Structures are given as C-alpha cells and as structure tokens.
Amino acid sequence: MYGCEWDDQTGAINGIYQDGYDGEDLVTMDYKELRYIASRPQGVPSAQKWNNEKGNLEVWKNYLGTICIECLQKTDPSDPFPIGIIVGVAAVILLVVIGVAGYMVYKKKNGEDKFA
C-alpha cells in the first residue's frame, strides 16, 4: 500500500509505503528518515536490500512527496472519478514496471537466482 497525506491547513506532507504478504506487513518506509523498516523478521532481507538502493528511495520520495501531493491538490472531493488519483496510479504503475524491468536486467546480468 502506498499513498500520501497533505494537510491543506499547515502544508505538512507525509508519504506512506507498506509492503506485505498474505495480509501481514513486512516492510514499511519511514518517509521522514527515507529508509525502509522491517515490520517482521521475514522483511529484514528486503529492507536491508532496499535501503542500499538509494535511487529507489529517491524515486519513492519524489513520487510520494511531489507527484502524489499534486494529485491530491487537484482532486475535487465531489468527483467520483478524480483525475488526480487516476494519473497518480498510472504514474506508480509506470514506476513499478520500470523498477521490475531494471531489477530483472540486473538479476540476469549478475547471475543472481533469488529475489531478496
């Protein structure tokens, strides 16, 4: 799950990223500290690996702190199909596809056999 919070009164923003499996949280991202934290022991390998991928952290920081916030600001609460949210979801899908493709190329190039 991912998303952002924006307080239109104070201008405060926060990014939210949680990754899980089978209904259990495994890894969350601390937006303020810009690092991943394992919620369960099974999430430790992923959190460690992702913390070493600074480019990935910067992509999420940019998306959650800029693109997602801009989408929220453009959203009309009375609109049942807000374009801001639709554009935001499309942007994340593109980021995920690019990230997976990049990881697969890296994996194949370095001969790794396991996902972390």
TrEMBL record:
Residues spanning the membrane: 83-106
Domain MHC class I-like antigen recognition-like residue range list: 1-74
The entry's keywords: Glycoprotein, Membrane, Transmembrane, Transmembrane helix
Pfam families, sorted: MHC_I (PF00129)
Identification of the protein by name: Class I histocompatibility antigen, F10 alpha chain
Origin species: Labeo rohita (Indian major carp)
